[in-house]
Every structure is written in C-alpha cells, then in structure tokens.
Amino acid sequence: MELNTQSDWVARSLRSVWHPCTQMQHHETVPLIPVSRGKGAWLYDHEGRRYLDAISSWWVNLFGHANSRINAALKDQLDTLEHAMLAGFTHEPVIELSEKLSALTGHVLGHSFYASDGASAVEIALKMSFHSWRNNGHTDKQEFVCLKGSYHGETIGALAVTDVALFKDAYGPLLRASQTVMSPDARQAADGETAQDVARRAAADVERLFTERADKIAAIIIEPLVQCATGMAMHDPLYLQLVRALCDKHNVHLILDEIAVGCGRTGTFFACEQAAVWPDFLCLSKGISGGYLPLSLVMTRDEIYQAFYSNDVTRGFLHSHSYTGNPLACRAALATLQIFEEDDVLNANKIKAARLTAALQPLAQHEQVHNFRQRGMIWAFDAIDAPKDFSRRFFATATEHELLMRPIGSTVYMMPPYILSDEEIDGLAANTLAVFNKVLAG
Ligand SMILES: *Cc1c(COP(=O)(O)O)cnc(C)c1O
What residues does each domain of the chain span? Predict the structure, then answer.
C-alpha cells in the first residue's frame, strides 16, 4: 500500500514536474496542493481539506468534477472506440458533435475542424483565413489584427496575436508582428461616457486601420464580450456589431475566440449571440468537453470551406494533429451539450448569477474595490491599493478558506462551475470577502 503523505506528493512533484505558468521557485513559499480527488465543485487534498473550484480549473469544468452523466458517457465510449485517426476515417461522436454545434449557429458555421488545445485552434483559424484568401487570389492578405490586452494562447503563432507583456515579451524576437488596435474595455470610459461610447471609439480605431491597409489584412481576432487573461476586461456587444460591419465592408475575416467565453459562460451559449453576429471563424475549447479531456475546434462558414474544395491537393487544408477528433473527447462534449439541453442550463444560470451577484454586494460596495463587473457566470473586481504580491498572497490565503482562486495582478475574478448550490454560492461570496480583507490587512 502507498504510504505517501501530502508532503511526500509535494516533494515528488517539485522534483519531477514542471508546472505551467509558474515561477517554480515561488513554491518555496506558496503551497503546491496535491489533489487526491474531485466531486462536484470541490477538489480534495490528501489531508481531507477541500477547495471550492471557483475558477472551474481554468474555465474548463462546467458541471462539476466526477459528473455522473459525463462519466457514464465516457465509460460507454471507452468500451466502444477510444480513438481512430480522422483522416480517411470518421466516427459517430465527431459527426454528432459537428452536427449539434452547427445547429447551435443556425447552420451558419457549417463545418468544424478539430484539434486538442485552444492555442492550436487559434493557429488553425489564422492559417485557414490566410489560406482561404490565397486560394481566392488575395495573396497579399497576410497580416492579422489583435486587440490591446488580447490573449489567444501561448504557442508561437497564437502568441503573435496575444498582447499580454508577461507572456509575450520574452519571446518577442520569435514572433511575427501583428497590428494591435484599441481594446473596447468599458473601464476606459471617461466621465459621462458609456460602455457603448468606448465601443464606438474602439471600432473607430479598427476602421482607421482597415481604411489604411485592409488589402494586407487577412483577419481580426477578438475575444467577444470579455478579454479574460488580461484581467476580465468586459465590453459592450455593440463593439462586435460595429467590427462585423467593418469586416464586411473591407473584406477582412472576423475570428471570434470563444475558447474561454463560449459554452454558456457569458449567459448565451456563444458570446457572439448577444451581439446577434456570427464570425467567419469561431474557436471553441476549454468548457466544451466539460473539463474532462483536451478538445478544441474551429467552426467556419461554407464559403470558406468551399475555397479549399478542389481537385488540387495543395488547395486543401493540410493541417492535422494526431488526436484530431478524438472519440472520447467528442463523447465528453456530447454529454456536456446534453446537460445544457436536459437541465435548461442557460436559464438556470440566470438565477444562480443573480444570487451570487447579490451575495457579492459587500465586495461591490467595499471601499477598496472598484470596477465590480459581471457578465453571465463571470465576476471580477479590481483591488484599490493592492499590496505587493497581492495575487500570490490571495491565492495562498484563499486555500486557507476552502477556495481555489488566482487573481490576475490586482483583479480578483471568479467563474465557478454551473452546479453551485445556494449554500455554496453564499459561502463563495462570504469567503472571498474574508480573504480579501485578510490580504489587504497584510
Ligand atoms: C485559454 C485560452 C486560449 C488557449 O487555450 P489553451 O488550451 O490553453 O491552449 C486561447 N484563447 C483564449 C481566449 C483562452 O482563454
């Protein structure tokens, strides 16, 4: 029998695992937490302590850990087909998933192309955009436009359209330059200005760039409604409508990266539904498999699909990943979509969101809080006069209050799984307030 204790697991992990997005030396002071199991919204360590997964394990977990319905679907799939390559072969889970997703867009985005992680989906959208222009004779369209504060993943191509200095600067020499336009972040509103005014100003910046050089631009890539990794910067849906119109007018593709904001997170299944626009490419990952297996995909319009359809091999989209369309991951996604249907999740979330917003009012009114904001199942606020190392101290203090939370700089945010009970919602709010006060008090 294994006799490993909590501290054995920590020591062994630090000796052999290189953890993501981490300065490993910080683990000399910040605890590394070995998780032994998960159930519902909770993760448990080896000493029986528990942590409410208030950030859905980086956005992925929608319906709780060890969800019985997703588990049952996966167990069935395991005994049927674990994997088969998707070139020359196809299978039921990938077909059904593609059909269901297409239907969710009213069949505007008729084809789905699969990969495993979000950054790869972004790379695929960029390559497809460039290649479809080329196939149509527009060989000069080689540039991409991103927003200030954008985050689209950390592979070399995705990082080129990312604007988060902490992730990007060290690799600057490796990256292909992209054009960066103003963010529509509503926090930039001047006195008397509304979020819509900021959206108009940001769209004017896009218009300026498109007017100058649209003949060189393949696509603009946007995280619709919420720019997440930069610190939950939220904007008015009007921005998406204005940019969609500019893309149509100037012949530029619109790529919407719904990797974080998709799957009901902002209140509608796709964030862009709130602007009543569809992109030319839509990237999806994270929550789509319910937090079970790596799965990402790019949905696109039939005109774009047709631009590759030919007798000529080189006009095809010759991109692949070994696990493209993995049946287990697709089956997890199908089980996830089924829960959305069976439980009327989008409506149920409205009630949960109203309760958490109400419970968070002491924080919204806190004298050291500004920009309290919410969209769908995402909440964020900025700390005023945050002490040095606020984010790491908050994380460590939160673990002492049964919470898993990781602020970005001085922005505290939560995007919990969609299955919180009333008691868990109230506990999340009360504990967040307690942690916040403790960290500010030093
Ligand atoms: C997480 C994220 C990505 C990258 O996805 P990975 O699976 O981490 O590669 C891309 N875009 C957005 C908006 C994200 O939040």
Answer: 6-66+345-440, 71-342
